[in-house]
Amino acid sequence: MEGTATFFAEQVTLNQLVQNLIYGSGTVGALMVVAGLLMIDAGTTRSGNLYNSTIEKMVGFFIGFTTYFVIGFGFWAGQYYIMGGATMMDSLKDWWFFGALSNAHAQDVDPAVWPGLNTFQIFIFFLATFAGIVNVLLHFAVSERMKASAFYVTCVVATVVSSVLSWAAWGSVGPLTNAGFHDFFGIGFVYIFPTGIAMVLVPQLGKRPGMFSPHPKVPSYKAPSIGLAAVGLLTIFSGLPMVILSCLFFVDPEAYAISVTMADTSVGIAFNNYGISWAGGAITGAIISYRTKNYIYLLFGPLAGYVSGAPGFDVYLPWQMFLVSLGAPVACWLVYEFTYKRQIDEHKLFPLFIGAGFYALVMVGLIKAGTPRGGYIGIEEGIYAYQHGQIGIVMQLVGFAVCLGTGILTGLILSVILKATTGLRVSEEDQAEGLDKLKWGLENEGNG
């Protein structure tokens, strides 16, 4: 190639392109999840705060997305550097925004230095999308009550901390995963971590007007479109199968798939586990909804089923996955009722990720105990030997505690700093008046 000192054709083969497309599709799926979450928010947020809530989620998403591009990926990739005898700092130097590998053309990089460079570069986009999702999820817990400036600062910090947590808790050779913590879909650093932050912030932000008792300006808290929330749910359902592909490694011979945790699996089994988890959760959620006459469990049910299987889509058999998912909405129901009776104004993250999330990690630790995983393929001895570790209940509990505890600690530190600087809470009067009107001059019909 003219103008290029050396051209490494093996970096840009058809096989490489197929892998690039597989991981690129995962990014598309993750973006569909973002769209679905915004639909759920639009369907369940009081109309007087609807635009402001949506735009804060979007800005928070892109703050997290950008922060991850700047520094986040180097933390996750650092597990492979450390495995090879290098350091985390080496990874950060190579993969930060101006790093050598994050800015190189694949065909210009010797495979001996980094094979499959295009795929790893695509993974920056993929994981940056989930860094943004962390912030969108957190906003569900603090929406309408937290000052935008405080939330945006939190987005930067949460992105960096969740990136470090991904190094420890998602992959195959990070310290937690290599020791036995099994989390195929990364619910620890994406779902449970922001829930820990919310556990600190929600009590300090208080209840929204009209949520539990009438307010002079808000007689009751009304969701504008449950139907739109249901469409958002199906959008998430449609996008996540592509994400499953990005949680698999494809190695020789040809399309042999192993999970990111280095457990034995296959594409078909992982896909079917995903689908049946939604079905099982939906069935139990519907039963609870009809018995309690509360629509919320019809939405919680499929999501709870999905969360219950996410750590183990790679290792469950479909019939096992179905039975596990049937119990997940019950875990949600217990947490939801506990918090609602105590007038704790957080109805999404706590039931799903403390209830179903804890249940999920425990069940895979019990049902699939002894399943070999961890290490890295091709390594036959030492602390990173392929499948040297086994799934077990103790490390599942440790992983949950670390992910939730990291979120709680992050929330505690942030709350002190934010109270002393930007301030934390939107006044109750402004919440009742409606932030769309106060901030943007938007009038909504039926400002309830």
Structural topology:
Blueprint: H1 14-44, H2 50-83, H3 88-95, H4 117-142, H5 148-169, H6 175-179, H7 187-205, H8 226-245, E1 248-251, E2 256-259, H9 267-292, H10 296-309, H11 318-341, H12 349-367, E3 372-373, E4 389-390, H13 393-420, H14 428-433, H15 435-440
Antiparallel strand pairs: 1-2, 3-4
Helix pairs in contact: 1-4, 1-8, 2-3, 2-4, 2-5, 4-5, 4-7, 5-7, 5-13, 7-12, 7-13, 8-9, 9-10, 9-11, 10-11, 10-12, 11-12, 12-13
Written account of the structure:
This protein has helices at residues 14-44, 50-83, 88-95, 117-142, 148-169, 175-179, 187-205, 226-245, 267-292, 296-309, 318-341, 349-367, 393-420, 428-433, 435-440; strands spanning 248-251, 256-259, 372-373, 389-390. The chain is mainly α and 448 residues long. Helix 2 crosses helix 4, helix 5 runs antiparallel to helix 13 and helix 10 (296-309) crosses helix 11 (318-341). The longest helix has 34 residues, at 50-83. The model has no long low-confidence stretch (mean pLDDT 95). It is found in: Membrane.
Give the CATH class.
Answer: Mainly Alpha
> What is the CATH-assigned architecture?
Orthogonal Bundle
Number of domains: 1
Envelope shape: globular
List the uncertain runs. Answer: none
Gyration radius (Cα, Å) is 22 Å
Helix content: 55-70%
Structural classification = mainly alpha
Can you list the strand order of the major beta sheet? 1-2
- The CATH superfamily bears the name Ammonium transporter AmtB like domains
Provide the β-strand percentage band: under 5%
Q: Mean pLDDT, nearest integer?
A: 95
N-C termini distance: 64 Å
Summarize the main sheet. 2 strands, antiparallel
- For the secondary structure, the number of strands is 4
**Count of DSSP-assigned helices:** 15
The CATH topology comes to: Ammonium transporter fold
Order of helices and strands: HHHHHHHHEEHHHHEEHHH
Organism: Pseudogemmobacter humi
GO molecular function: ammonium channel activity
Membrane topology: Multi-pass membrane protein
GO biological process, one term: ammonium homeostasis
